[in-house]
Design brief:
By secondary structure, the chain is α+β, with helices and mostly antiparallel strands. The protein folds into two domains: 102 residues, Sandwich (Immunoglobulin-like); 55 residues. Helices cover 37% and strands 33% of the residues. The strands form two sheets. Strands 1, 2, 3 and 6 form a four-stranded antiparallel β-sheet that branches. It has a four-stranded antiparallel β-sheet with strand order 5-4-7-8, with no helix packed on it.
Length: 199
Amino acid sequence: MTDIMRRALKATVILVFLLFPAASVHSQDEATDNTFQDVVLKMTLEEVDSIKTVTVAAHTLENGEEVPVSGETVSVFVPRMFSNLTIGELTLDDAGTASIEFPSDLPGGKEGNLTIVAAFIDNSLFGNVEKRETVHWGIPTDYLPSSHRALWTHKAPTWMIYTLSVLLAGVWGHYLFAIISLIRIKIDAVRKARKDYRV
């Protein structure tokens, strides 16, 4: 039994020494595969006849010459408080460009400024690359209608006011019922004590 265990131990050690260099070579190959290419990402914002357009262009440099990036997907979005508001996914054409119409009804803070981002996200060739610009394309929140009710305005939504009122009425109603019940118990106890005392 001991000879078998020794042979198994030797075989395990030999396998470890044989497989370890192969694993390290494999990891080096993966590391070289994960290197990304350099890319130049440009974004142009234009407004013609109240139509807002976002144009994206991308190219790489090969031997000092610009080579358009074609067939890759570029995401256009606007950062918000909790997540990104996606405007669209663009596929670059043979010239390495793509365009999308930007919506004109997005709130943009007090001054109406929006940050627009065009980005390669988890791209197999370029990794994560982004281009962002701030432009006055949003609706200033100070100029929103006064009757507008939302969670971010000074006036709460009507459904929230009704719900909160019902919940508070239920809670305070239970408190009032408990107080009245305690008073009635005390009064009944006093009456019963007086009755028993007279008897």
